[in-house]
Amino acid sequence: MAVYNYDVVVLGAGPAGEGAAVNAAKLGRRVAMVEERNMVGGNCVHLGTIPSKALRYSVKQIIQFNTNPMFRVISEPRDFSFPDVLKSAEAVINLQVRSRHSYYARNRIDLFYGKGSFADANTIELVNADGAVDRLVTREVIIATGSRPYRPADIDFNHPRIYDSDTILKLNHTPRTLIIYGAGVIGCEYASIFCGLGVKVDLIHNRDRLLSFLDDEISDALSYHLRANMALIRNNEEYEKVEGLKDGGVVLHLKSGKKIKADAFLWCNGRTGNTDGLGLENVGLQANSRGQLTVDEHYRTEVPNIYAAGDVIGWPSLASAAFDQGRSAAGNIVENDSWRFVDDVPTGIYTIPEISSLGKTERELTAERVPYEVGQAFFKNTARAQISGEPVGMLKILFHRETLQVLGIHCFGDQASEIVHIGQAIMNQKGEANTIKYFVNTTFNYPTMAEAYRVAALDGLGRLF
Ligand code: FAD
């Protein structure tokens, strides 16, 4: 058994681990990264964010090809299989692994491939694929082991047509019909992808509306467009049993008595933190029932030299936040100014249409009795959207009718997750710099989707009296 010494050992090479390791190295610490998979990138690159976004991008291109009359000169509409579309995702995964690997090399971070666990608070035991064991002795540890789909014991995930969001990436055919159970962000994104491929989707969940944390108008728009793309949304339903048939299909039995049959079933209901097998008992830490660890505002666990970041600490469980949480955890170890608590995360949902938002919703402002006003811009009226043939969408700015402070930005449509950042920059300004007037007193490039801010601001200011 070899023994190595480090200042910081990071467990897990996803976005949280990468952010932590690179920052700690830049701040002069001797850093080791321990990763169970034999490649960097984490579940983000291999199973989550990147493959699903690459799939969606390809599907959007297929939709454009099949619906834009200009392409009829070239060819008739074409069907693409799921495995065909998956190939483009695989290419992006490889590119991501290559660039991310270079960050470790450039920052002189030692990479160890194997499963890490605590022998004690300063010793990580590493078991590699051949079963060989090494030990890393360290002053600090950052746990960034991420999450995996939650799998209820009563569903047979070994059935060839029952998938979760990890195993769906091994789907080797295009089902005609698909049941998606769970209409959170991941369920809605996969519903958009499969609808775009012409699959008839039943989207089932136990709430009374999709993504209820969104502004109602945006959530309604998502339901409308999913339905328009042939998804059947069934609200307020819970599963009784998922029956994998011998002929390969799946029947979903709902507590309401309904039975739904489809070629395949995709479970998208919940995730579990990867804390089992970490040897937490050897350091006096305990995960909650969802496998997640509790940290303070400095990303420190109850054990002073052990930090945690990313999906393993729960909310918001986004790659966007995980990078910054990891970076902050490392910044806190060194006590420099790269620390911040990450709580201002915009929502980015890559459904078709795309959704993004930040700040308060109309529902929240009304409940809080804040006197707000609304400014809206519809993409169909902007030159850029007309040129790009992407007329679906809207930008909505919520602002205080007396102070004019921007309180919320809600957007759906093409590039929504990019468009939101202009509003985010203004919302983050202090005092008078954060008012809706910025959008009418600033000249944006034209034609751009940024024009929607000017149009929405003029619309909103026009409602004041
Ligand atoms: P992960 O990316 O989960 O990486 C953890 C790493 O730790 C893994 O490589 C794992 O092998 C390793 N590991 C685990 N245990 C050990 C151990 N004991 N020893 C060594 N290594 C270990 N987020 C967004 O911001 N935008 C999106 O569009 C988005 N889309 C998503 C779509 C899907 C389908 C899914 C599932 C997730 C999506 N997410 C998205 C969420 C995002 O993927 C996660 O928030 C992000 O991956 C979390 O990063 P992480 O670093 O915490 O962990």
Describe the structure in your own words:
The chain is of the alpha/beta class. The protein contains eleven helices and 22 strands. A hairpin with a 5-residue loop joins strand 21 and strand 22. The protein starts with a strand and ends with a helix. Flavin-adenine dinucleotide (FAD) is lined by residues 11-17, 34-37, 42-44, 48-49, 52-53, 115-116, 144-147, 165, 186, 274, 277-278, 310-312, 317-320, 322, 348, 350.
* Main beta sheet strand tally, sense and closure: 7 strands, mixed
Bound ligand species: flavin-adenine dinucleotide
Give the helix/strand class.
alpha/beta
How many strands appear in the DSSP assignment? 22
Beta-sheet strand percentage?
A: 15-25%
The coarse silhouette is globular
Q: What is the helix fraction of residues, given as a range?
A: 25-40%
Instruction: Calculate the terminal CA-CA distance, rounded to whole Å.
Output: 76 Å
What is the count of DSSP helices, taking H or I runs of 4+ residues?
11
Q: Cα-atom Rg, whole angstroms?
A: 24 Å
Q: State the low-pLDDT regions, or none.
A: none
Mean pLDDT: 95
Key structural traits:
alpha/beta; 22 strands; 465 residues; 11 helices; binds flavin-adenine dinucleotide
What's this entry about, in short?
This protein is of the alpha/beta class and 465 residues long. The chain contains eleven helices and 22 strands. The strands form five sheets. Strands 1, 2, 3, 4, 5, 6 and 17 form a seven-stranded mixed sheet that branches. It has a five-stranded parallel sheet with strand order 8-15-9-10-11.
